[in-house]
Each structure stands twice: as structure tokens, then as C-alpha cells.
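Exercise: predict the fold of this chain.
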Amino acid sequence: MSSFWSIWISVISLGTILGCYLILRWCLLNKTGVEEGDDMHHSFDGIIEINNPLPKWWTIMFYMTIIWGILYLILYPGLGNWKGLLGWKSSNQNVQSLQESKDAVLQSREEAKTALFGLGGVGVEYDRELQKAEERFAPIFNKYAEQPIEVLANDEEALKIGQRLFMQNCSQCHGSDARGQRGFPNLTDNDWLYGGTPEKIVETLVNGRTANMAAWLPSFGEKGVEEVVAYTLSLSGRQVDEDLKQAGKARFAVCSACHGPDGKGNQALGAPNLTDNIWLYGGSRDVVTETVNYGRAGVMPSFKNTLGEKKIHLVATYVYSLSKDK
């Protein structure tokens, strides 16, 4: 925060407290010229106004709130760049990578030990909550990590935990129902680019995936792409021009290096099966043409550092359970 905004916030915060104090003092003054408790010589609907002071209990409470406000600003951050005597922060600010976040967590925990004049501070609130969560849930994750995914796939409690982790980390791309969307696979069917065994699902979550579909427009030209697209669509039973199909079949020899001579794909490479009419980016002629023209470079991030192996074990269990009987 710049010095200007730090001063601006400090002036507003302290000015508000000072203003409340001055208003209270002004209200306690007897400005009427009438002794306290005497008749103000004013009545309305039979009710006579008396010059009574503010209730003492109310005044004391108002003073207490002012004192509390001052103490709060001294102990906690609230005056611009002032960090407060307790060294409290809601979270580590300005981190730009996972490693920076981990380093900031360690640093904040060390600072918390000596924040309050060497008597120990409260540190970063988010870090404390994470630490409490780790202490509470670590035994649960350890217990499930010792069991095979095939066994856990029948454990309702394990699946609930895996589902919550999925919703927090995976649903943004694959959807809350795991049925995916354009460019993001449906995880509830039996069509897998890299394989749907527990080991392969864990491998995908740990290492991530990067699509490697090359752009063929420079090599094939527009006519060649049209021919390859026609043959590709015919593999899943679509009606196409026969001449284009036969010309595309010859060109498909280049594509077979990944998709196989029969077009059924190769899970070792993540090359999709082109014969099942299941399309990751869409199966219309225009979309398939776009794919062949420009290639695809979708990225599945690695969750090794964000979730860790034990949580990945439960996410993989949930994902495996979605299609294990299909």
C-alpha cells in the first residue's frame, strides 16, 4: 500500500473515533441554561420534557467502545501499513507462485513466535486455519492412503471426501457432475484418453497432461485437410463424400502414427479413439476441421504440489468410482 493510502486510511479511522468522542462530550454538556432535572417548560401531548443527562450506563458503554476501537487498531492492522502489535494478517499477500506461498507460510509462523514483544503473536489467520485442518484431518487421509483405490471406491465416506476435493479443485473444468464440457473430458463414461485404471488416473492427477495434436494445415493444405476430415468422420459412421474419403484415407497414414491405422487411438500418447463418435472439442465438420487445421494444446495441470499424494488418492478414488461399472 502506498504512503498516501496508508495515511488516508489512518486519518479516516482515527478521525472517526475522535469524532465519536467529541460528539459524546458535546452531548454531555448542558447547553440549555436549565438545571439538570428541571422542567424544560415544553410539553407535547401531555408529556413534559425534563432536562435529563444521557444515561450513565449508556455513556460508559460508549466510552468502552471508543477504547476498544483504539486498542483494536493498536493490536491489529487497521491503520494503513501498520501491522499491529500482534502481527496478525488474514492471509499472505502478493504471493505469485505455490513455492512463494509455502515460503510465506513458514516465514509467518516464525514471525508469529516473536510478534508480541517476544511473547508470541497470532500470525497469519489463513495459515493457522490450515495448520489446524492438517492436524485434524491428517489421520483420516493417512488411513485412506493405505487402502487400494479399488477398495475405497466402495467406501461411502471416502467417496464423500473425494467428491468434496473434486468440487473444490476439478469441477471448474469438468463440471460439478464431472460430465465435462467442450475441451474438458467427461469423467463418467468409459472413454479415456490416457486410460481409466486407478494407476492411470493417479498418474494424470500427479503429473498433469498436455495435449500434443499438431496443426496439419501447413502440411496438408486446405484440400488435404478437407479430405482427412471426411475420412475421419467416416470412421464413426458418418455419411461423407466417397471421393474425399478415399483421398483422406491415404493421407490418414500420417495420422495413424498416433491414432493407429484403424483410428482407435493410443492411450499411451493420449490420442483419442476416432471411431466411437465421442469428441472432446465437438464432432461437427467445422470443429473437426478446426482441430486438424490448427491442432490442440489443452493442458491438465499437475495437482502434486497443490493437493499432495494422499488427497490425490481420494480424488482418484472418486473419479474412478464414476465410471468403474461402465
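Check your answer against the key: The chain is about 55% helix and 5% strand.
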